[in-house]
Amino acid sequence: MEQTKKLMMTFKTSADKNISLSIDNPRDDINETEIKTAMDLVVSKNIFAPNGEDIVEAVKAKVVITDTTPYDLEL
């Protein structure tokens, strides 16, 4: 079984749409304060412009862990 982990961050754009940015393999000891600080930095520096829209607000964040079990179908 293979396990993957991502930090999913959701932001609101100037067009009032939600967009998500993800970070693969975040540290195991990452905390809410660090995530909030990083998200606030993305908003304040305005370095991303999805579809030409500004990111104006941090909305939510979560760590998603996925277990994948591959199967060999050649029997």
Automatic annotation (TrEMBL):
- Classification via Pfam families: DUF2922 (PF11148)
| Listed InterPro entries | DUF2922
Q: Which domain of life is it from?
A: Bacteria
UniProt-recorded name of the protein? DUF2922 domain-containing protein
